[in-house]
């Protein structure tokens, strides 16, 4: 049980609100399977230009045009780079944006339905009833986060969240990212509790002054003792003062 008397709750997704296995065994394979067909169908759409530019910038180029100059099949370069990033589970912004748009069809058709632990929606309902502000911070793009919670096993949870942050604010293992979130949110560090399954993320948040708790869910990676963060196995273990 932990007691929190601040105003904001910042939630990680994978391993915190939802099972790691759902992301790794269902969502990532879906994106990998659909990647080639998606690029053939949408690779030349104007809407994809910012995503392709981001993938090129992540690869160290100025933009997509420079990155693929002289390529006969520029989308092959994108596909190969995206496969490389997926193989390494690299949380690059461009990859995450592309996965988000690929998942859109899956969520809208019903093939994808996001897993959410049963304690999550009731706890958030209760927090919001007491005037708390609940936001998401995930490596998944903001677009993907909204699709995920709009099409979850617990129904449409998007009205629960007042804000979303992704890697466009910064990587989750850097204190500066949490400082930027606080600045955007307009809250002091001690006003926000961050929940995650990854100690390095909690360390970064704590360095920025946030309160933290490690969420221990079935299937999460084991954690070394002595990490110094409070631990919970369910959101119901958080009491608000
Ligand atoms: C929007 S669900 C997909 C999450 C994702 O792509 C990912 O890499 C997991 O990131 P998290 O920060 O939630 O652990
Ligand atoms: Mg996580």
Automatic annotation (TrEMBL):
Cofactor(s) demanded: Mg(2+)
Pathway noted in the entry: Amino-acid biosynthesis; L-methionine biosynthesis via salvage pathway; L-methionine from S-methyl-5-thio-alpha-D-ribose 1-phosphate: step 4/6; Amino-acid biosynthesis; L-methionine biosynthesis via salvage pathway; L-methionine from S-methyl-5-thio-alpha-D-ribose 1-phosphate: step 3/6
Enzyme superclass (EC): hydrolase
Cofactor, how bound (note): Binds 1 Mg(2+) ion per subunit.
Entry GO MF terms: 2,3-diketo-5-methylthiopentyl-1-phosphate enolase activity; 2-hydroxy-3-keto-5-methylthiopentenyl-1-phosphate phosphatase activity; acireductone synthase activity; magnesium ion binding
InterPro entries, A to Z: Enolase-ppase_E1 (IPR023943), HAD-like_sf (IPR036412), HAD_sf (IPR023214)
Keywords: Amino-acid biosynthesis, Hydrolase, Magnesium, Metal-binding, Methionine biosynthesis
Gene3D superfamilies per UniProt: 1.10.720.60, HAD superfamily/HAD-like (3.40.50.1000)
Its EC number(s): 3.1.3.77
Coiled-coil segments: none
Catalytic activity reported: 5-methylsulfanyl-2,3-dioxopentyl phosphate + H2O = 1,2-dihydroxy-5-(methylsulfanyl)pent-1-en-3-one + phosphate
CDD domains, alphabetized: HAD_EP (cd01629)
Entry keyword annotation includes Kinase: no
Gene Ontology biological-process entries: L-methionine salvage from methylthioadenosine
Pfam assignment, any one: Hydrolase
Biological role stated in the UniProt entry: Bifunctional enzyme that catalyzes the enolization of 2,3-diketo-5-methylthiopentyl-1-phosphate (DK-MTP-1-P) into the intermediate 2-hydroxy-3-keto-5-methylthiopentenyl-1-phosphate (HK-MTPenyl-1-P), which is then dephosphorylated to form the acireductone 1,2-dihydroxy-3-keto-5-methylthiopentene (DHK-MTPene).
Subunit structure: Monomer.
Homology family: Belongs to the HAD-like hydrolase superfamily. MasA/MtnC family.
Listed name of the protein: Enolase-phosphatase E1
Annotated organism of origin: Pseudobythopirellula maris
């Amino acid at each position: 049980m932990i007691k929190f008397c601040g105003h904001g709750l910042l939630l990680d997704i994978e391993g915190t609100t939802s099972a790691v296995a759902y992301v790794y065994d269902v969502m990532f394979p879906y994106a990998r399977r659909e990647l080639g067909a998606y690029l053939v169908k949408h690779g030349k759409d104007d809407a994809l230009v910012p995503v392709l530019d981001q993938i090129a910038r992540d690869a160290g180029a100025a933009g997509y045009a420079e990155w693929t100059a002289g390529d006969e099949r520029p989308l092959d370069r994108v596909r190969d780079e995206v496969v490389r990033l997926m193989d390494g589970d690299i949380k690059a912004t461009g990859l995450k944006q592309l996965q988000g748009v690929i998942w859109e069809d899956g969520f809208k058709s019903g093939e994808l339905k996001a897993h959410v632990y049963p304690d999550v929606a009731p706890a958030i309902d209760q927090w919001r009833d007491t005037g708390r502000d609940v936001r998401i911070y995930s490596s998944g793009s903001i677009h993907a986060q909204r699709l995920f919670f709009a099409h979850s096993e617990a129904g449409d949870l998007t009205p629960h969240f007042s804000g979303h942050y992704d890697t466009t604010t910064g990587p989750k293992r850097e204190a500066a990212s949490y400082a930027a979130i606080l600045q955007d949110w307009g809250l002091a560090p001690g006003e926000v509790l961050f929940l995650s399954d990854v100690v390095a993320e909690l360390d970064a948040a704590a360095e920025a002054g946030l309160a933290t708790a490690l969420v221990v869910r079935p299937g999460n990676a084991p954690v070394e003792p002595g990490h110094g963060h409070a631990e919970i196995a369910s959101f119901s273990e958080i009491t608000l003062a």
